[in-house]
Amino acid sequence: MKTPATILVATVLALTPVYSLHAQAAASAMLKPADSSSKVLLDNWKDIGRKLTDMAEDFPEDKYDFKPNPAERSFAEQLLHAAGGNYFFINPAKGLAAPTGDPKRADYKTKADVVAFVKKSFADGAALIASKGDSGLNDTFVDPFSHQQVRVGDYAWGFIEHSGEHYGQLVVYYRVAGMVPPESRPKK
Question: How far apart are CA 175 and CA 164, in angstroms?
Fold first, then answer.
């Protein structure tokens, strides 16, 4: 004999897969498609550029030549190295010669000079990535270090990593100088 409770449980169990499939279909219809490869790359390029620019703008100018120890680059030299490194990607990808070395601190005497260079290098890289789009990320050029063919997208990711490594080093500069980096501060 079937009791009302048994009938209710059986009905719920029978309808659960139908409801579940309907809910999954509705959720899938609302999902945003994955971003394109070039958008993901560009967003990451801009993000590390923003972090380094925030540091460049935030760190006191009177501490720009600060070094945690004498063998290290100064804060400004770290920024110049990271931003200048971008041109080892940008220039060859555009068919231009790679730089011959790091930008010299003597050529960027003020905080404003360094900040402007950091902003320009990341803007130049962002413009290059945006101009390539998804299909252009597979374009190749000759790596100035290994002298072999590399893809634009792969090489750009390498320089995002390079900038991230220097971002991490600059976090240490902040901490050794008794300061809190912008990204580590409480959000307002």
Answer: 17
CB 156 within 8 A of CB 41: yes
Which pLDDT tens digit goes with each residue over 127-141? 999 999 999 999 999
Q: Which two tokens stand for residue 150?
A: 């590399």
Same domain, 65 and 11: no
- Does pTM top 0.90 for this prediction? no
**Same domain assignment for residues 55 and 9:** no
**Of 61, 57, 56, nearest to 81 (Cα)?**
56
- My answer on whether 162 and 74 are in the same domain is yes
81 residue type, one letter: H
Total structural domains within the chain: 2
Which residue range is the domain that position 7 belongs to? 1-31
